[in-house]
Design goal:
CATH topology: Aspartate Aminotransferase, domain 1
Structural class: mainly alpha
Order of helices and strands: HHHEHHEH
Strand order of the largest sheet: 1-2
Mean pLDDT: 86
Distance between the termini: 43 Å
Strand content: 5-15%
CATH superfamily: Aspartate Aminotransferase, domain 1
Radius of gyration: 18 Å
Number of domains: 1
Number of strands: 2
Low-confidence stretches: none
CATH class: Alpha Beta
CATH architecture: Alpha-Beta Complex
Largest sheet: 2 strands, antiparallel
Shape: globular
Oligomer: single chain
Length: about 160
């Protein structure tokens, strides 16, 4: 990504940046979009059903929303430890590890530490569970159990 794109701008020839191979892959992904979204919604529903049974709070989207989670966010005491302990079952994401969209220092965009205390607290405790098409229902069960074990060991 160019610096201009990072600031929301569009560099010259922005719309013409895909090679033929990239365009073919993009078109194939668009053809599978509805199936992908349906799978992500079903996987998220499994997490939503299972996580509270082992003591985790789950996201509460607005009533009319139909989210298709790219990753399913869960708050834990020690994200690094939970990620290490669960790695044999799944690679947990650390998306949203910064207040801003960039993983760089928040000072990069003149962010003032303490101005979003809830967001700052949330990112210190966030892991993201996978929802991609290769995650099956039995995988969700295994991932939830592994996260619960890791969290229990962290809390002692």
């Amino acid at each position: 990504m160019s610096e201009e794109e990072g600031r929301g701008g569009r560099p010259p020839h922005y719309e013409q940046r895909l090679s033929n191979a990239q365009a073919a892959i993009g078109l194939r992904q668009l053809q599978r979009l509805n199936t992908n979204l349906a799978h992500r919604r079903a996987t998220a529903a499994e997490y939503t059903a299972r996580l509270p049974l082992v003591g985790f709070a789950v996201p509460q989207p607005p009533v009319k929303a139909e989210p298709a989670f790219v990753r399913y966010p869960v708050c834990v005491k020690d994200p690094d430890k939970v990620q290490r302990d669960v790695v044999e079952h799944a690679t947990l994401g650390d998306w949203f590890s910064s207040i801003l969209s960039w993983p760089d220092s928040p000072a990069y965009d003149d962010y003032e530490a303490g101005s979003c205390p809830r967001a700052e607290e949330a990112i210190r405790h966030l892991v993201n569970l996978p929802t991609h098409p290769w995650v099956r229902a039995q995988d969700v069960e295994t991932i939830v159990a592994a996260v619960a074990r890791a969290e229990a060991m962290t809390r002692g």
